[in-house]
Amino acid sequence: MSGPEVVRVVAPTERRNAASYDLDLLPTREVLRLINDADQTVPGVVAAVLDAVEVAVDYAVTALRAGRRVHYFGAGTSGRVGVVDAAELPPTYGSPVDWFCPHLAGGRDAMWGAVEDAEDDVAAGAAEARSCVQPMDLVVGLAASGRTPYVLGALRAAGALGARTALVAADPDAAARADVDLFIGLDTGPEVVTGSTRMKAASAQKLVLHAFSTTVMIRLGRVYSNLMIDMSATNAKLRGRMISILVEATGCPEADCTRALTAADGDLKTALVSLVSGAPVPEARAALVRSQQQVRDALALLA
User: Fold this and answer.
1) Residues with a known catalytic role
2) pLDDT single digits (tens) 166-196
3) For residue 137, which phi and psi values (nearest 5 degrees)?
4) Which residues have CB under 8 Å from 197's CB, separation 6+?
5) Can you give the pTM of this predicted structure?
6) What is the DSSP letter of 33?
């Protein structure tokens, strides 16, 4: 009777870090310093792949403007990073909840704990992609090793459906780079704790996804200057932030901003256009519709 399948992964994230050979013998403060030193290398690694991230942004903007979606497929920590990034976009930018769709090997239960063999199920990844991916969508695979079967199964199925595909991996030489439209290879190297890709590899993925999705929201007109103008006010703090944003963006007194926001039925972007242009709320709203919700274009229409 044979046991469970065994795979020995050959990837930079599985190598031993020479700087941490004596990790378990070090004083607490020295362990913390060593981890922090390693973490400081991550932004430079991300800086090296910004050209590829720019292409991913262009792919995503094209897809979303065409009424399509962006999907994240991942397993373990990589998948959880994708879930968090996607979940934060609607409250931060007021984006439709189905613009960014995260898919985690093992489903919802895997968000809180390991689901046995879920990441090894190539058929499950392919089936998940076939159930929801459409032509012209952008499908982003997240895999620290660059070889996670669930992720690669999803990417292959998505490509066959006519979607654009991208892979974010912590192995710049991952064999799967040849199988996707766009490869983002992060050279994070060995982890302080060997194979613990929730450390540098995950930090790099988080930086890439946050830069990627934030820039997509900016390109789609959901930021004016450096202010969130499509945010959802779901609590008292955020309702106060909406007033603060209007004061910052327009220079108008708080009382005027509060009245404009009330007149716009709580729509921050409409209130902003009305205050800056001096146009009544209905005209501001109509200008935003004509400009596809681009504030600066709406203001130009009302000038």
Assistant:
1) 88, 119
2) 999 999 999 999 999 999 999 999 999 999 9
3) -65, 165
4) 13, 76, 77, 78, 144, 145, 170, 191
5) 0.90
6) H
